[in-house]
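Re: weekly structure request thread

Next one in the queue (302 aa):
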Amino acid sequence: MSSGAPVTSILRILGLKKSTYYRRKKLADEKVKSLGRAEGNIPGFSYNVVNFKINDLIIQKYISEIKSTEFCTFYGYKKVTAVLKRKYLLKINKKKVYRLMSVMGMIRDKKQPVRQYKRICKNHTVTNSNQLWEMDTKYIYIAGTRQVAYLASIIDVFDRSILAYKLSLSPNAESAQEALIMAFYNRGLKDKEGLTLRTDNGSQFVAHTFEKFCIKEKITHERIPVKSPNYNAHIESYHRYLQDECLTGKLFNSLEEAEDVIDNFVYGYNKVRIHSSIDYRTPYGFYNLKDSNFKSKLVIRI
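Done, posted below.
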């Protein structure tokens, strides 16, 4: 009957009365309704284009045949529905195919999206050190090993000090987090409330582990809009100076050699090189300046 054979002919062959068959069928249908569709566990059917009933068990066999084909192994329920309609001429919708494939264990559990703590940068009025830091990554080629190293640097926008840097062979969240911990140590910061860290949208900065670390340390992490490096101008400017005055024309044989050269440049940048924006003082001297009228009047809007 489920394949479309006439009910009257089947009952005549079996020697059953119509009243008996339909009474039993009615009782079975009522039982299914009382149990619910999922708990009834009685196979249904769908029609094909010539209005023959096709049992769900046969449809599941069709699905197995489709999924066993070389190029259809990873088909989802929507594509399987399209094949059932075109190849097997079934009148069936994607919701039913989804249910059948779920029973067959062919539906993958959806991955829960990782929550992104995204905060777009906003305007700041910076009046003291340790209010706004900028962080960015620069590529450095290691000729001796033919590898690309990644330099993560942090600058204080107010006093222009390079607080810390980390040179590594992988631009991951752990190296960025390590640079941030070094900056805390160098500044002697225990209470980080009121500190904002601004970065671009690099993979190490959007990583869930890095975001969780910032939340744990009570740092406001904000990211600049895409293709807007001017929002991170101070650290971008520092990396340009680093390239022009330190890296250009040098070939490093190892990661350690590059670290030594960069460390010497950072020392000179902080303690020797003067900056016009901080009264022609060095970042180190300006940071340690006490009771200065200029320092108290300096306001940076960014």
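Residues 43-110 form one domain. The mean pLDDT is 87.
Next request, please.
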